[in-house]
Amino acid sequence: MSSLQSTMTVMVLYPEREGNERIAFEKRSVPQPEKGEVLVRVRAAGIGGQDKRIFAAEELGWRTKRRRSERGVISGYEFSGIVATGGSRFNEGDEVYGYTNFRKGGVTHAEFVCVSERMISYKPERLTHVETATVPTGCMTSLKALQELAGVTERQRVLLSGATGGVGIYAVQIAKMLGAHVTAQGRSWHEHELLRLGVDSFIEYTREEVLHSDELFDVIFDVAGIWNFDDMAPHLTSRGTFITTHPERDRFGIVSSYFTAKKSKYLFVAHGRSDVLENITALFDSELLEPIVGSVSPFYDALDEFDPEDRKIVGRRVLLIE
Ligand SMILES: NC(=O)c1ccc[n+]([C@@H]2O[C@H](COP(=O)([O-])OP(=O)(O)OC[C@H]3O[C@@H](n4cnc5c(N)ncnc54)[C@H](OP(=O)(O)O)[C@@H]3O)[C@@H](O)[C@H]2O)c1
Predict the structure, then answer these.
(1) What is the Cβ-side half-sphere exposure of residue 11, based on CA atoms within 13 angstroms?
(2) What's the predicted TM-score (pTM) here?
(3) What is the reported pLDDT for 302?
(4) Which of 138, 175, 223, 244 could form a disulfide with 180 if both were Cys (CB 3.0 to 4.6 A apart)?
(5) Domains defined for the chain, CATH in brackets
């Protein structure tokens, strides 16, 4: 590392405190990269659904529960930044982006992050750090669900819930890129943007009940994590696939689908796949995907970005950490 900085500022969530006390900016030691890792100076980091749930003290795992009562929780699972201490593949000064292992908890809402070289790639040249910070989780998750697990092909009919969130906005684009007919669910004020991105059919989730529709889908990607296989199976074609971002809430569905032609598949993005990230970089650089930034806040104004009432935003919220 060119500078000898030994401490850094991290954002710490305290979900059980009140008001402004729920976010604190604290000094911590700059982490030291282990074998196979690089140290990255974070320039921008996305705020994902998982971060919002931690902030709202919802569905916390035992690790998070223990940490939040002891010393709060550092959030953030994706970032864009500059390598500060190189490794075997990436050198100091390289502009990179990537994600961290969900199972280990968040770390990227901080000035520095140590990350495996298998979980980063060079930043798309056409994109800014803010734009790039919206990409890793949304694109990795959507590609895994739609291409790898569901094998979406041209003209297949795909239904997406949560289409305007950080994952959904890339699921829409990737489903269209794969040639699918896309039905997306969102709020009325999101319709225009979803149609602009190529959505073929829009369902307003506060009014129209998807479960009452007669339409059949080859793939249902439940990005919002609100459905289960048994409820959605009648809306699948005879060999259709259901995938939810929260498979842990629908374990029974995955097991029961073993015995039917319709399938529920397990989605979890945690392993290092720099090859997939490299493909994603190419998709943005060749303008096949468009970065969608929901909003940007300076690091120290992060509290505004966790406002659950502000639902008009389309795409990932980003913290500028400079
Ligand atoms: N399994 C995995 O490997 C994996 C990977 C990445 C993410 N995830 C999970 O995937 C989920 C989505 O992530 P994200 O980053 O896209 O979150 P996000 O940015 O917060 O977006 C969530 C989306 O779901 C919508 N939504 C929320 N409640 C809804 C409801 N009751 N009915 C319909 N839509 C609803 C939201 O719309 P409104 O705000 O308008 O309500 C928003 O469009 C999160 O729970 C995250 O933890 C899982």
Answers:
(1) 33
(2) 0.94
(3) 92
(4) 175
(5) 7-134+292-320 (3.90.180.10), 137-265 (3.40.50.720)
Query: Where residue 2 falls among pLDDT bands split at 50, 70, 90?
Result: low
With beta carbons less than 8 A apart as the criterion, state whether 172 and 197 touch.
yes
Which protein residues touch ligand 1 with a CB less than 6 Å away? 48-50, 52, 137, 141, 161-162, 164-168, 185, 187, 205, 223-226, 245, 267-269, 311
Top pLDDT among 104 and 245 is at 245
Q: Is 173 helix (H, G, I), strand (E, B) or coil?
A: helix
Q: What percent of the chain has pLDDT over 70?
A: 91
> pLDDT band at 192, cuts 50/70/90?
very high
Q: How far is the CA of 7 from the centre of ligand 1 (A)?
A: 33
State how far the Cα of 244 lies from the Cα of 223, in Å rounded to an integer.
6
DSSP secondary structure letter of residue 110 = B
8 has a pLDDT exceeding 60: yes
Angle at 148 between CA 143 and CA 150, to 5 degrees: 100
Nearest CA to ligand 1 atom 13: 49
- The amino acid occupying position 196 is R
HEC string of 261-322 equals: CCEEECCCCCCCCHHHHHHHHHHHHCCCCCCCEEEEEEHHHHHHHCCCCCCCCCCEEEEECC
- Which residues on neighbouring strands pair with residue 114, listed in sequence order? 39
CA distance 62 to 55: 15
